[in-house]
């Protein structure tokens, strides 16, 4: 069953990149239920070894303000379940976004954020691929 799931994730990423024109690195892992903005798909940029958990939403447009802008997620990040990344937000490398967070502002590199709106809970964190904390 795991092989089927991995195949479907690769297929979903391929459709996002080839058909919708999103910038998603091949090493990115997306949950099958993650939602990426299809109104302005060229504004979605997700870098290497990032994990986007289930029901997370990444937006690149805001119809109320007629806004279309780039939303960038750095390398080695973890985007928690049911979190929302608003349009134009830049998340630095090696960041962790807690589950259910609403990210309204840029997140500096090596930072953990959580809450609604998301606030910094830890800085200068060290994570590996897919935002996994190193064992201490």
What descriptive keywords fit this protein?
136 residues, alpha/beta, six-stranded mixed beta sheet, four-stranded parallel beta sheet, 1 helix
What would you say this structure looks like, in words?
β7 (61-62) and β8 (67-68) form a beta hairpin. This protein has one helix at residues 2-18, and strands at 23-24, 29-30, 35-36, 44-46, 51-52, 57-58, 61-62, 67-68, 71-73, 78-79, 84-85, 90-91, 96-97, 102-103, 111-114, 119-123. The protein starts with a helix and ends in a 13-residue tail after the last strand. It has 136 residues and is α/β, with parallel strands linked by helices. It is 12% helix and 29% strand.
């Amino acid at each position: 069953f795991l092989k089927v799931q991995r195949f479907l994730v690769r297929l979903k990423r391929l459709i996002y990149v080839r058909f919708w024109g999103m910038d998603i690195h091949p090493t990115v892992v997306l949950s099958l239920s993650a939602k990426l903005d299809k109104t302005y798909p060229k504004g979605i940029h997700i870098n290497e070894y990032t994990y986007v958990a289930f029901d997370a939403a990444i937006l690149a447009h805001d119809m109320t303000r007629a806004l279309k802008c780039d939303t960038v997620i750095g390398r080695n990040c973890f985007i928690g379940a049911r979190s929302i990344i608003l349009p134009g937000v830049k998340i630095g490398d090696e960041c962790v976004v807690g589950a259910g967070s609403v990210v309204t502002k840029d997140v500096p590199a090596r930072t953990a954020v959580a809450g609604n709106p998301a606030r910094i809970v830890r800085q200068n964190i060290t994570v590996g691929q897919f935002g996994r904390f190193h064992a201490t």
